[in-house]
Predict the structure of Pyrroline-5-carboxylate reductase.
Amino acid sequence: MTTLPSIAIIGAGAMGGAILSGLLAPDVVVEGGIRVTNRTEAKAALVRGPLVESFALEHTPDGNERAVRGARIVLIGVKPAMVPETLASIAGALEPDALVISVAAGVTTQTMESLVANPVLRAMPNTPAIVGRAVTGLAAGARATEADVALGRALFETVGTVLEVPESQIDALSTVSGSGPAYVFYFVEEFTAAATGLGFSPEDAGMLVRETFLGAMQLLASSGADPAELRRQVTSPKGTTERAVAVLQDADLEGLFARATAAALERAKELAAGA
């Protein structure tokens, strides 16, 4: 059982909504309640319930301020460009002991600390948070204590695994776990197209590829073995898999991944610089 103090989620969109789902799990207790905000009533109504007070900013312009009053944890889930304005607007309503956490890419803890007097954390969860399998990178601002970091870890562990990193590594982490699901989906997409080209229907091809990926990842997770060793176990000498793997190796996947993550990291730095 995980017990957390009162929480406000400012911008309960895709990521904020995923974290909210984790907070509503049967083994999580949020003492003091959960308050969330969205821009429209249509979105606010989707998350409103017995355990969640939900404000629509179109009807309650001061909803953000109302949500953070009394909250021990304030999660900022708005788009990166909106973070400075949002923090400035709620700064006067924050409780003195409130921990402010942003999940926005490119917004540094230094920027956050220039706008609020509270301790801040910068978090980078990925989209599998929706199914409780996120990997979240967590970096502390200058004012954050070990207790603040532990509280942030407890929050994000409701939706998956947490890795504490120095802020200097957050952008690099985002190129792996943050962007990583897109890489996997792209592989599945192209592998499915190849299976369709072999004569399988789109439905059967999709099933074959999805279940192969799921099974392989479950085997990797449960075995504790190195992925290279598992690959060798599947690759019989002079067999079909060996020949296929040789084609993949000739394509220089190692270099391809290095270039892809480098490109993502370059863009992350551009976003941090406001480009």
